[in-house]
């Protein structure tokens, strides 16, 4: 781009006074010159005068805030700028209501004019490069850091010199400058250094300018930027500056000498220590290149930086890498890969002993292997979130998959759809990002009293792991700080180990030594995990020895380890060899000036007796607290807030909670980032260690925490309404429960109460009944005199259901009785009666369960004879047959979906009554099914209708030999399940279809029905139906005449399944089947054998523990 040239020798306007506010006249003519970011440069000229000046101001109203801050920063810097090397503002003014700076006119010829095309002559480039370095060298000698080196801020002054401009981001070391500078982070995205992103542990210094200068040189040589992101935002540019390596310039243009390419790449080193340390060192090498450049554009190679200063000392964030014990974890992975079976690896030890370092070293090695990594860390202060650590682990893996090439993403979509068929909704609720790879199918909500919810969730996790863990590419699932894990996640991990022996899975759990935490429940849980695993290894990181500390100090001091033994012994004595404590202790004595580094000599000096005499705290938490006390007050408060909100989180959320801009957050956290107390990435923060988070958490008092939790709860509550999945909702209620004493306005309490009950239902649906109960306790605590009866009834019903699902039948019965005696709607009362009937069934009191259901059916207007005879059953059959005819599909396919909550509740209660009646009154069972079909004809289809149709078909076959018509009902029930998405009824309709097809279809059809029934039941966690399907399939195989050896294998598999399902009744039947097959194969057993005892128990009449209240 050609910038217009303005003669440099023109006089300024007559009323111009240096350093003062400048008011120009209305007739001044302004001509735009060029736009640089949010600032536009303009030429100002009076029409009747030869005087001229240059003005810089915001390019638009939208950019005014940022531009004003930059321009004010530059104007405050005037005393430190020199006209010899800087374009120095002379005055400030207002232009169209916007802040502006005024400059004496100068040759407006920026370097941006020539960066579009590569420089052909290398001699010209070297000459220009040395000229560009001159003003930057002067600036650095004045202890100023420019902060925004780019072509648009470099102005060419004829053929002899250059000047710098654009000092809005300039910083310096002068104390008065530190106090007056306005904070402003960032820079021009394409030219900013890794330190400018504020995502690294290093602060911006003069070497940051050298990185930006390297990009300018790269652009002059190649005609392009090292990273070309025309549409990229801050996150993308930051990633490339921090992690991506540019292509060497000489590979882009053969005219560029390799030595010159080496110099540019040295400027672009990611670590400031690997760059040129000074402009003088760079100029020395440029002059050497200039002196040895040949006519063929060749430069004799030489070691760069020989005349440069040694890099300043910077203590690494971690103590050492790789960890010597990481190979044990890598070896465990190799065994998993070779065997194709799972392994549990337990890494335990005191806090700071090196668990994280060991894991990081192993993960670094594993990234070079064919593997998928799912890494999660349990948050100490929000560990109660249901499945929170599993969500974070699988989210990280899912995001990695989404970043793969399009063709690979399609393959993963196909694989996930196949393995998670039927579990899509549960998987997306756990990891919302899976919604980008899966289609959430419409599903009927499962029965709220079904204890299979946990089984379904567990099966979903096994299916998800089965998707990711493949032969030749094992899955590594890492759970750090498992000692804080929620109970539900721990149960899932235990189930996963019990049911994934044939999966290439390495489950790694890291925890503090249980003996140091007084956590007996964790010790017991860890014991269960060990028992569930087929193979397990224990890794206990060892403390550092004196020699190890000495070797580390030798690396730091750049001397032999024998010369550091005395200091190493002292540090080891003070820290016990704890790696984190060693690191923090060494940082402390460096900060206190007891260990000093002469950056010019490159030598270290320390005084062991003085260090020995100085008293320091005896634990790492105390050291971190002391370090935190040195932080500015605003930094300490912000760190405490972040610790309260979690070990990691999104800066966008923090910005909204604390009402701070992203820039303000980064500015306030900058001292903590430099001190390595926290790390910042593109849009997240992370505490590097749980001990740091603990210490930061202690900075806030109870009142501050409560207020912070309340603000966060309000924000997340609003966000949870639009968020996919459950995580946002669960996090919101976590903060509600932590701030419950601060919630005052009645409307807010009501809103949080409703959300708490919703969270309870969601947790219950995923099988986490303990969390559901905890959320209900939060809802109850938010109640009060103003709460309405309907809300109280719904809350108590949820509490009763949770008690039932947790196995506390006494509490569930007590709550149900109280609900039935309380005011409430009919549908809600029927739901409570349904629960009470289920409690009686679980207590093996089927007569009382049936009587409870029938009594409340009467209340709802459905009266049935407790003891119908055959004539009454036949009359009901004929009435229904006359109404439906021989083609039930023609009638039921035309019905709408049921819309009445009361009728749907009655249908559920009829189904519950039918289950009890099937054991003690078959004729009443038939009458109940007839009633359900009548209600369906009158009010529409619901999930319970499909099950009623299937079993109605079975009973009319048994009672009236109507097997063909019964088969039609069963087939129709199956079709309605598919059509309306009643997936939880899939197995319930396949089981009666299996029984009916024996009489009307080939046995191959029947075996396929039983197989599909078993698969569907397992998929949806219906272990009862799955056990019956396995039992029926054996009878099908025997009826079909299969080879007895194959039948026996199927029986053994079925027995293994029903034993895992804890279904002794079906187990006894299958034991009898096994004996029958063994008998046919010629095997004889003595009387009194196990099978005979099973037969005796099966044939023994059942006795109810409680007499029925039904009349004789």
From TrEMBL:
Pfam families: AAA_16, Pkinase. Keywords: Kinase, Transferase. Residues 1-293 form the Protein kinase domain. This is Serine/threonine-protein kinase pknB. Its EC number is 2.7.11.1. The keyword Kinase applies. It comes from the Bacteria. It comes from Serratia plymuthica. Gene3D superfamilies: P-loop containing nucleotide triphosphate hydrolases, Transferase(Phosphotransferase) domain 1. InterPro entries: AAA_16, Hybrid_Histidine_Kinase, Kinase-like_dom_sf, P-loop_NTPase, Prot_kinase_dom, Ser/Thr_kinase_AS. PANTHER family: HYBRID SIGNAL TRANSDUCTION HISTIDINE KINASE G (PTHR43642). It is an enzyme of class 2 (transferase). SUPFAM superfamilies: P-loop containing nucleoside triphosphate hydrolases, Protein kinase-like (PK-like). One of its GO terms (molecular function) is ATP binding.
């Amino acid at each position: 781009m050609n910038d217009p040239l303005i003669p440099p020798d023109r006089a300024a306007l007559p009323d111009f006074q240096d350093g003062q506010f400048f008011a120009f006249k209305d007739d001044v003519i302004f001509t735009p010159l060029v736009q640089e970011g949010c600032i536009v440069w303009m030429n100002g000229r009076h029409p009747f005068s030869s005087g001229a000046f240059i003005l810089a101001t915001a390019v638009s109203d939208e950019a005014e805030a940022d531009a004003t801050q930059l321009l004010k920063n530059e104007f405050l810097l005037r005393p430190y700028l020199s006209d010899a090397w800087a374009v120095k503002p002379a005055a400030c003014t207002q232009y169209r209501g916007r802040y502006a700076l005024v400059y004496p006119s100068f040759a407006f010829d920026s370097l941006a004019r020539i960066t579009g095309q590569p420089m052909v002559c290398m001699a010209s480039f070297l000459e220009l490069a040395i000229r560009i370095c001159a003003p930057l060298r002067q600036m650095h000698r004045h202890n100023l850091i420019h902060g925004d080196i780019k072509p648009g801020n470099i102005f060419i002054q004829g053929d002899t010199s250059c000047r710098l401009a654009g000092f809005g981001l300039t910083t310096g070391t002068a104390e008065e400058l530190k106090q007056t500078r306005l904070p402003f982070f960032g820079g021009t995205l394409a030219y900013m250094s890794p330190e400018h992103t504020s995502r690294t542990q290093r602060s911006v210094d003069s070497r940051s300018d050298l990185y930006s200068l390297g990009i300018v040189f790269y652009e002059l040589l190649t005609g392009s930027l090292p990273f070309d992101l025309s549409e990229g935002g801050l996150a993308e540019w930051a990633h490339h500056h921090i992690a991506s390596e540019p292509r060497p310039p000489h590979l882009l243009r053969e005219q560029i000498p390799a030595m010159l390419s080496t110099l540019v790449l040295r400027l672009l080193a990611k670590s400031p220590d690997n760059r040129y340390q000074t402009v003088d060192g760079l100029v020395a090498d440029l002059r050497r290149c200039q002196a040895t450049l040949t006519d063929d554009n060749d430069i004799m190679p030489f070691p760069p930086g020989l005349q440069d200063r040694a890099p300043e000392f910077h203590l690494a964030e971690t103590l050492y890498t790789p960890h010597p014990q990481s190979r044990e974890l890598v070896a465990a992975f190799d065994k998993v890969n070779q065997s194709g079976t799972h392994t549990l690896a337990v890494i335990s030890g005191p806090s700071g002993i090196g668990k994280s370092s060991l894991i990081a070293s192993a993960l670094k090695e594993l990234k070079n292997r064919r593997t998928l990594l799912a890494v999660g860390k349990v948050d100490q202060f929000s560990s109660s979130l249901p499945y929170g650590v599993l969500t974070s682990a699988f989210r990280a893996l899912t995001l990695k998959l989404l970043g793969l090439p399009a063709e690979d993403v399609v393959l993963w979509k196909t694989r996930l759809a196949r393995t998670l068929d039927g579990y899509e909704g549960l998987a997306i609720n756990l990891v919302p990002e899976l919604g980008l790879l899966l289609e959430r199918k419409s599903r009927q909500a499962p029965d709220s009293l079904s204890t299979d919810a946990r089984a379904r969730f567990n099966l979903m996790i096994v299916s998800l792991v089965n998707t990711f863990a493949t032969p030749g590419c094992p899955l590594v699932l890492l759970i750090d700080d498992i000692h804080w894990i929620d109970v539900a996640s721990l149960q899932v991990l235990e189930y996963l180990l019990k049911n994934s022996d044939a999966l290439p899975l390495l489950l790694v759990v890291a925890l503090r030594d249980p003996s140091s935490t007084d956590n007996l429940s964790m010790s017991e849980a860890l014991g269960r995990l060990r028992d569930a695993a087929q193979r397990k290894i224990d890794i206990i990181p060892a403390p550092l020895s004196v020699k190890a500390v000495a070797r580390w100090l030798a690396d730091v001091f750049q001397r032999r380890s024998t010369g550091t033994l005395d200091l190493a012994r002292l540090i080891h004595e003070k820290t016990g060899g704890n790696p984190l404590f060693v690191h923090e202790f060494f940082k402390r004595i460096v900060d206190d000036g007891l260990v000093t580094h002469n950056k010019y000599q490159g030598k270290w000096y320390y005084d062991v007796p003085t260090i020995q005499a100085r008293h320091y705290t005896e634990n790492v938490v105390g050291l971190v607290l002391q370090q935190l006390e040195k932080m500015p007050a605003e930094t300490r408060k912000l760190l405490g807030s972040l610790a309260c909100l979690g070990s990691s989180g999104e800066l966008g959320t923090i910005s909204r909670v604390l009402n701070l801009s992203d820039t303000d957050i980064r500015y306030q956290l900058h001292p903590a980032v430099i001190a390595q107390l926290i790390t910042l990435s593109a849009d997240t923060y992370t505490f590097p260690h749980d001990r740091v988070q603990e210490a930061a958490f202690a900075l806030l008092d109870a009142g501050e925490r409560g207020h912070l939790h309340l603000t966060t709860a309000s924000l997340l509550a609003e966000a949870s309404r639009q968020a996919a999945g459950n995580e946002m909702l669960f996090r919101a209620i976590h903060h509600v429960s932590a701030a419950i004493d601060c919630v005052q306005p009645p409307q807010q309490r009501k809103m949080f109460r409703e959300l708490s009950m919703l969270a309870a239902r969601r947790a219950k649906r995923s099988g986490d009944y303990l969390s559901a109960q905890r959320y209900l306790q939060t809802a109850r605590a938010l109640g009060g005199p103003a709460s309405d009866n309907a809300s109280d009834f719904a809350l108590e019903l949820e509490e009763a259901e949770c008690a039932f699902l947790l196995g506390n039948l006494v509490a569930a019965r007590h709550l149900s009785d109280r609900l039935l005696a309380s005011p409430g709607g009919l549908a809600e009362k029927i739901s409570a009666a349904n629960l009470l009937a289920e409690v009686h069934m679980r207590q093996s009191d089927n007569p009382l369960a049936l009587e409870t259901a029938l009594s409340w059916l009467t209340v709802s207007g459905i009266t049935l004879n407790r003891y119908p005879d055959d004539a009454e059953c036949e009359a009901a059959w004929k009435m229904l047959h006359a109404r439906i005819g021989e083609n039930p599909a023609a009638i039921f396919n035309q019905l709408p979906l049921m819309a009445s909550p009361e009728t749907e509740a009655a249908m559920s209660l009829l189904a519950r009554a039918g289950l009890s009646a099937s054991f003690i009154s078959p004729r009443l069972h038939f009458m109940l099914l007839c009633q359900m079909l009548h209600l369906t004809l009158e009010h529409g289809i619901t999930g319970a209708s499909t099950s009623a149709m299937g079993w109605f078909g079975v009973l009319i076959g048994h009672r009236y030999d109507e097997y063909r018509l019964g088969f039609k009902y069963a087939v129709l029930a199956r079709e309605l399940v598919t059509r309306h998405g009643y997936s939880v009824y899939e197995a319930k309709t396949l089981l009666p279809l299996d029984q009916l097809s024996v009489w009307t279809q080939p046995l191959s059809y029947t075996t396929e029905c039983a197989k599909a029934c078993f698969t569907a039941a397992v998929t949806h966690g219906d272990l009862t139906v799955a056990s019956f399907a396995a039992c029926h399939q054996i009878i099908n195989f025997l009826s079909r005449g299969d080879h007895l050896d194959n039948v026996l294998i199927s029986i053994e598999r079925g027995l293994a399944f029903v034993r895992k399902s804890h279904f002794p009744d079906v187990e006894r039947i299958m034991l009898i089947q096994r004996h029958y097959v063994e008998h046919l194969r010629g095997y004889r057993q003595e009387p009194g054998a196990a099978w005979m005892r099973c037969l005796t128990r099966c044939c023994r009449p059942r006795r109810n523990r409680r007499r029925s209240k039904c009349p004789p």
